[in-house]
Amino acid sequence: MRNSEMATKPIQLWKNSGVIAGNSLADHQATLFSVLSGAIRLRTPPAPLIRALAEESPSGYGSTLRQLADTMEDDVPLIQALEQVPDALSSDMVLALRLGHQNGILDQAMETWRQEENRGLFRNRNNTWIGELAYWLLVAVAVLILVTYFAIRVLPQFQKLWFETSTSEAAYAEVFGPVDSLFQILPYLWVGLLALLGVLATTGWSTQIRKWLESLWKSWVPSKANTNLSLLRMLALCIDGGRPIVSALSTIAKYHPTASVRSQFLFARNEIEHGQVAWDALCDASVITKPVAECLSNESPRSQAWLLRKLAEVGMARREFSFQVFWVLMRPVVILGLGWIVLSLGSSVFRFLAGLVHSSIL
Predict the structure, then answer these.
(1) For 19-27, what is the mean pLDDT?
(2) CA 218 to mean position of chain CA atoms
(3) What is the pTM of this model?
């Protein structure tokens, strides 16, 4: 091995270990999707390419890729292998592949989805919240360290001086009451902050923790709006491929991971088979709104596919805007919380010094 390779090998292992922050899971999945798209387009066995990609991926996702390659080398078809290794691609990607495969448009579906992923049309294009969250966490850690130092080293000295010059318990409670209240919740603040840091640190490479948090979040917050964005894209894929929309509904109704979504699309498919217009059936199933259904009914298939993608893109933009608003509203809340801590300490120190000066004058 050459000296340059020997020098860079430890660095590469460290970067791939997942200990330090790198690309998000969505970035790794988009890369794998591009590799699979190229392999299918060129009629190349994907397993060796997946195994090579695993060597350049972080340890957690690299293990997932190696498991996927092993599964495919056991003569398991691509889509079944992806379903057996659910962390390799997102459920939306796997369902899009399933839809393309069952409708005979796999190459076209993969290429269209890959281009959309690479262009970032339907992925979170606003990553500033990551840096902002890291900034405020560092500020919180610094403030808590100062408060802890004050509680352990400074406050006992203040208390000693106070009771040497004054024996008034009422005056002590008035001066140090806010600080004592803060110190009582200080352990809980440390536990909460360390727990948050631990979660953020482990979700990057721990698949089990990430999946548990995702399921917990979905149980608290309905994800219907986000789900519909991907479903609109899948319907557009089917229309672009010249396939009847009922075939896409059948695939989604059978293979979508969410039971409520499967019920919606099963209802819509049954209504279409009984003679109802497709877009009206989707409206009755609460997949699209009535104005959208009326608009799509009057358009050509090519325009329908374009409108569906545009609706999904607008929905993503609205979601990002809502997230931005959330951060804008949370910023003053965090500032006020940290300001209250600093104000409590400063006020107590100032009143303590004022009390000492007053005692010395008297």
Answers:
(1) 60
(2) 12
(3) 0.69
